[in-house]
From TrEMBL:
SUPFAM superfamilies recorded: TPR-like (SSF48452)
Lineage: Bacteria, Pseudomonadati, Pseudomonadota, Gammaproteobacteria, Lysobacterales
Name of this protein: Tetratricopeptide repeat protein
Native source species: Pseudoxanthomonas gei
Keywords: Signal, TPR repeat
Segment forming the signal sequence: 1-23
Keyword GTP-binding: no
Start-end of each TPR repeat: 509-542
UniProt keyword annotation of Signal present: yes
Amino acid sequence: MPALIRITVAALLLAATAGSVSAAPAPAKAADALTPVMAGEFALQAGQLDEASRWYLQAARADDDAGLAERATRIALLANDDARAADALKLWRQRAPQSLAMRAAEAALALRKSNVAVARRELGALLRDKDDMGWRYALTVLGSGGRDPALSARLLDGFVDAGAIPDKLPAWLAFGGLAQSLEQSALAERIVGEAVKRFPAEPKVALLHVGQLRQAGNTEEARKVLDGLADAAVLAPQLRLAIAAEYDALRDPKQAAATLARGTQDNQTYGLRASLLAKAEDTMTLTLLYDELRKDASNPDPQRRLLLGQIAQFLKRPQEALEWYRGVPGGPQRTEARLRTANVLFELGRKTEAFTDVRALQADASADDEARRGAYLLEAELKQKDQDDPGEIDVLARGLAAYPDDNALLYARGLAWERRDRIDRAEADLRRILVTDPENVAALNALGYTLADRTTRYQEALELIGRARVAEPDEAAIIDSYGWVLYRLGRNAEALVELRRAFTLQKDAEIAAHIAEVLWVSGKQEEARRYFEESRKLDPENRSLLRALEKTGA
């Protein structure tokens, strides 16, 4: 149960029962609100957002509490119930007229209704507020509060025109990033240009400029700006990481590794350098790094030996990797080393040894439960790689015999059944998780998405995804699932709003494929092809992408 609900319910129960310990009667309004709050909570737990919206609005009307009005507003917005959201918002405004959160909700509702005047007024008030939270609320509303990203972009453009963006570096960085995530290259260029004028010597602004140039396809200019940050890379570890990430995004992992090589080094930096050099296929430099690090190999540092094992794998020296992993002396790194050993043996084709090692860890009474459960999950993964479907299921069954109702094992088996088109068994495992952990967001989302994608039980899917949305309303994977079930219900326009919002939050191949399919069946094939291409760039083997291409013939 969400914390806010627990507090509200507890307060109402206390008020309603106060008469049993005191002569003072329970406040009538609080008692009147108790029943609809409880009904609303039960509806929320069932994923019935429309019902929850109705009950919470009734509770907000029955009690003068601003928190109830806020809760009613948020649930109505989540349920896409604009009429009840407006009614609840009116109550909230009466009770907390100075609240920044209330003004943000008012702006979000206005955006959803395309009421530009009200949205501009409320967002402008948030941007002018002296509290540093004001512009952050405005940023959130523009980023995910509306149904039309183009409208958010137009409003943001107007605020730049009006000089309304606070003269603070974090604000300009954040709004520049928002313009990029909205895929508004001209607006992003404009905001970044303004930020460069205001903060000319600030490396973070230069990094924002690099991202804007890269997104606009101007990679040569982006590289020039990035090269100018060479000295800044030494100043602060976080800057160095960010600069290296931009070089990697420009498809130059070798230079990214060279950037990380500047300044003080630790195992994390060495590990990142190694992975980047492996990605660049720069065997010579990677070998030099390996030789440098193994000079200290006499010191039995578990983390360093793990790292040397990884680099040996990158260099395709599996026997040396095995020696490093087997030489990890103890501690939590020892467990990881044992798991990595099994992986290397499997890659060497020594599968019997790999499975013997991983089963030894499963049976090791001195190992902690997390390590032993991890060994079952690894063995199942190796069986999947070996295309041994019965073996994978058998491993997870053995794991569940050792750790009954373990959520991670049940979740892994549920996904394994789904890959085999055994939706009945996938559902059974995911529901077992929800018996012991009714608010497990991953299981709620996975089951809801599976029912939406692989069955016609769309209403059940909608309710399960609704429960996940209540817990994590801004999680891209959950928003994607919600958009997908709306599509399956034939509500294509609403589906596109949610799917685009999910893609703004996370550039993911599956989300892009979903957008492409909805666009295609909506008759917008040209735009659909662009999203299919985006999906291919991110993951050409994505299952949702392949199914969408087969379905549409794109």
